[in-house]
Structure formats: structure tokens, C-alpha cells
Amino acid sequence: MTAGEAPLRAAGCVLWRRSHGGTLEIALVHRPKYDDWSHPKGKLKRGEDALGGALREVREETGMECEPGAVLPTACYVAAGRPKEVRYWAARATEGTFVPNKEIDRMAWLPPAEARARLTEDRDRELLDALLAVLPAE
User: Fold this and answer.
1) Which residues are CB-neighbours of 69 under 8 A, at least 6 positions away?
2) Residue 96 phi/psi, 5° resolution?
3) I want to staple 130 with a disulfide (CB 3.0 to 4.6 A). Which of 45, 53, 72, 103 is the partner?
4) Contact, 27 vs 21, CB < 8 A?
5) For residues 74 and 137, which has the higher predicted lDDT (pLDDT)?
6) CA–CA separation, 95 vs 1, rounded Å?
7) Sign of CA dihedral 82, 86, 36, 116
């Protein structure tokens, strides 16, 4: 990695919904290429704004339409030897159906404690905490 190398730009959402009983559920996706569980996210297309990219990635990876909410912390880390910057939003799922694909083979709606245990990376647990801090209590 060279000094001052521009980071890869990506965006995603911590996707949530309330079950019919009112219980908070968090959507996690499984990527078979990495065998990990994470929040839906992906690289931005040339000229794409971060929020637009985040909503597109949620749609592509989960099949869900969503309503964006609060801005969550940006994750900065090194991936494949390059700096990566991923901007995140809280997003409430509104409708849609998950269909497995080559990139994402599984999706799970989990209560926060179960989501925390299943997430592979600590940075994703921090995003879950940030979501819980901004969601209105119901």
C-alpha cells in the first residue's frame, strides 16, 4: 500500500425491521467467498453518491427496499492491501424478498444479541451498537 493511496469507496446499511410482535430484528448477510456474516455493503460505482450506493447494495444483496435513517460511523480498514472506507446508514426495511445469489447465499433476520454473536468482524458489532443508540425505543 502506498502512502496517500486513495481508499476504495463503499457504502452500506445496518438494515432493521420490527417483527409483527414489535421485536427489533437486524438483517445480516453471508458471503460464501469470505464465509463471513456482515451488514449489506459494497463498492460504489463511478460517480455514485454514497447513500445511493448504500441503498443499491441493500437491494442487490438482500432484495429489500429500505428507508434510510441516521448516518452511522464510517468504517476504515485495509482490504486486499488497499485502504477501504465504508459509509453506513441505519435503514428500516420496508418491503422485499431475499433471493440467494453468487455473492450472498444466505440472509438472516436476528434479534440484536444474536446478530452481535453471528457478526464476523468487531467493526460490524460497533455499527450494531451505533444503530441501537439511534433507534427510537418502542
Assistant:
1) 89, 90, 91, 92, 134
2) 135, 175
3) 72
4) no
5) 74
6) 41
7) positive
Reduced to 3 states (helix: H, G, I; strand: E, B; else coil), residue 95 is: strand
> 85: part of which helix (H) or strand (E)?
strand 82-96
Phi (first) and psi of residue 43, to 5 degrees: -65, 145
In the block, cell 488497499 appears at 82
Cα distances (Å, whole numbers) of residue 117 to 65, 110, 111: 25, 10, 10
> How do residues 65-99 score in pLDDT, each as one tens digit?
999 999 999 999 998 899 999 999 999 999 999 99
Q: What is the pTM for the complete model shown?
A: 0.93
| β-strand pairing of 82-96 with 106-110 | unpaired
CB of 65 within 8 A of CB of 95?
yes
Q: Count CB atoms within 10 A of the CB of residue 113.
A: 10
Write down the domain spans for the chain. 8-134
Per CATH, domain 8-134 is 3.40.50.10420: no
- pLDDT reading at 5 higher than 80: no
Q: What are phi and psi of 24, to 5 degrees?
A: -70, 135
